[in-house]
Amino acid sequence: MFLWASRSILAWWALSVILILILVLGLCIRLWQRSCPWDLQLCSTNLAGKTAVVTGANSGIGKFVSQELACRGARVILVCRNREQGEQVLAEIQAASGNNHLLLGLADLSSLASIRSFVRWLLQEVSEIHLLINNAGVCGIPEKTLTPEGLDVTFATNYVGPFLLTNLLRGALERAGSARVVNVSSYRQNYGYIDEEHLTGAGGPLAFNQNYDCSKLLLTTFTGELARRLQGTGVTVNSLNPGVIYTSIMRNLSWQYRFPFWLLSFFLKAPKHGAVPILYLSLAQELDGISGKYFNSSCIVTLPAKPAQDPRVAQRLWDATVRLTNLDKMD
Ligand SMILES: NC(=O)c1ccc[n+]([C@@H]2O[C@H](COP(=O)([O-])OP(=O)(O)OC[C@H]3O[C@@H](n4cnc5c(N)ncnc54)[C@H](OP(=O)(O)O)[C@@H]3O)[C@@H](O)[C@H]2O)c1
């Protein structure tokens, strides 16, 4: 009896120690996740008189980024695909920032026609753009899900859309004299590979959710090629991994994937932490003239996956996307 009692006390004691260790480890991970050598509060960049375009501005990281830019005085164009949600977020950001120069732009980034129509509207509203943040993204859409234009939804939203939008806005970016493009990639780009056929729902085999990984690799590769083409124009472009952030990015995945994400949410970064590397690339003065780089979630320049480092691969991808978007024939 005595032996049984002392064993169960020992078991409880061991369990308590393990639980405390897990908690302490979790807190350390939480603190480490949220630390960044660059301090947003210490950055004094003022954006009064500047125009910023943010895609995916209605939720998650994009919403926080838009609010910070608005607080710094920028005329922010919130690009959303849902008018109701966009209007609600615009009102929220207006109230929080006191900035009355915000505009809502409607665009479905997976649709080439929608992007063209948005750009026609935008260029009537503004002639110069100082900051373009390609933040909108989608994850968890089954592979080979096609848009009415025959593009794979994930690749269209995460890569082809930003490619077309940025190219159509190139004139306005150059007119600003000094401008930045920020492409929100992901650490998942390391797990992708490049096959241009994926853009139209064909191409090599994809593991579960690897369409997301590949689309982010294409966005990162595009960043390098665009930087080469923008040399001497005053426009720079960089990409980044925001980290693992608790947002609604997993909404298209089944509950088996969303549940662990929810369970771990305490240890993950909040959108305001995920926004920091994006704001670093957008605001930090030490990045003037820096282009074609990939930054990790601690705002440190890092090498992207191998294919994104190869200019020949990037050139081929560029040419294929120009043909796909008819960029050489229109606008
Ligand atoms: N969360 C993470 O752990 C993580 C990690 C690495 C990279 N990222 C990247 O960070 C970016 C922001 O994501 P988030 O985490 O903030 O997720 P989120 O809250 O789901 O935000 C995604 C945004 O993209 C918009 N969007 C999606 N498809 C669109 C389309 N076809 N046209 C226009 N807008 C579209 C969404 O609009 P709706 O609300 O209308 O769908 C939403 O505003 C994404 O590029 C994502 O890939 C996130």
UniProtKB/TrEMBL annotation:
Q: What domain of life?
A: Eukaryota
Any keyword Transmembrane helix?
Answer: yes
Q: Keyword set for this entry? A: Membrane, Oxidoreductase, Transmembrane, Transmembrane helix
Q: Supply the InterPro entries for this chain.
A: NAD(P)-bd_dom_sf, SDR_fam
Bilayer-crossing residues are 12-32
Q: Which family does it belong to?
A: Belongs to the short-chain dehydrogenases/reductases (SDR) family.
Name of the protein described by the UniProt record: Retinol dehydrogenase 11
Q: What gene is this protein translated from?
A: LOC101656217
